[in-house]
Amino acid sequence: MRFLPRLLLAAALATAVLLVCRLLLGRRGGCFPDDLAPRAEEFPSLTLDTFLHVQQLRKKRLRAFCSRLAKAPTLPESSEERARMLSSVRVSTKLDFLYCQVPATGMEGWQWLLEKLEEKENMTVLMPLPYPRQHALQTQLSKFNQTMIEAMMGSYTKILFVRDPFQRLISAYMQGMGSSPSFSSFVQDVLDRGQYNASLESKPLVSLCWPCLIQYDYVMMFGFLRQELSHLLHRTGLPKDIHLPEFTDTQVRWTYMWLSEQLFSELSLKQKKQLSHFYRWDLSAFQFSNSLLSDLLSTPET
Length: 302
Hints:
By secondary structure, the chain is of the alpha/beta class. The protein folds into two domains: about 1-30; about 40-295, no CATH class. The chain is built from twelve helices and five strands. Strands 3-1-2-4-5 form a five-stranded mixed beta sheet, with helices on both faces. Helix 7 (about 185-195) crosses helix 11.
C-alpha cells in the first residue's frame, strides 16, 4: 500500500498533462506546448563530427572538474577496497567494453544490446590488447586483479552514462525504490542518510563511477542517447547493421522537465539547498541543461 500514493501521483500527472494539451493548448494528441514539443525536426541527423565535438566538450568539463580536486583518486591495493570502490563498474571482456552501471540513467537498452552481442559466438571487437583475451560475460571490474584492472582501464572502450541527479531521484521514487509515502519525505530520507550511506539510486555519479580515476572515452547524456548511440557503436568497431534497441529517453526527458518542476515545488527551501550540496560534484562535473539544482549550487546552506 505504501506505493499507492506515488502510483496515483503518476496517473494524476499523466492525466493533467493530457488535459493541459487538449484543453488549454487546443492540440489533438500533443503533449507539450509548441516551444517545448520534442518534434523530429528539432533533432536532425546527428553527424559524426558533431557527436565527437560534443564528446570533447563533455570530457573537457569533466577534466576541469577533476583538476580542481584536492587529491586525485587512485586504485586501492586492497582487493576489498577495490570491490567497494568499483562495485558499479562493469566490463565485457569479449567486447572490450567498460561502463558504469547506475540505476535510473536510462542505460537499460545499452545493457540489453551488450547481452545480445555477447551471445554471438563470432562477435569480437578487433583491438590489440596487451594481455591474452578472455571471453566471459559481463562482470564487475573488481573481480580481476590489480594488474588486469589497470590494463582494462587503459585499453578498453570506457563509457559513462549520466543523468540530471534530480531526475534520477524522481525516477527512483516513481519506481518505488524506498518506503516514503511522499516525495518530500523520500528526499529527506536521502538527505538524512548522507552520501556515505546513500543507496545506489540516490548516490552521486561521481562517487559511483569515479570519472577522475577512470578516463572515460565517451560520456553519454540521458535525453540524447537515441541520437548518439549509432555513432558510438560505429566508433567502437561494432557492426553497422546491429538492431538497436528503441531508446525513448528523448521523450522521457521532456516529460521529466515538467514533472521536475511539480515535485521540486513540494520541497522546502532548505531541502532544495541541501540537495544541491548533496549533488554538488555531479553538477560541477557534468553539464545538465535546465537542472533545477544548479541555480542553488552557489547559494549558502541554511
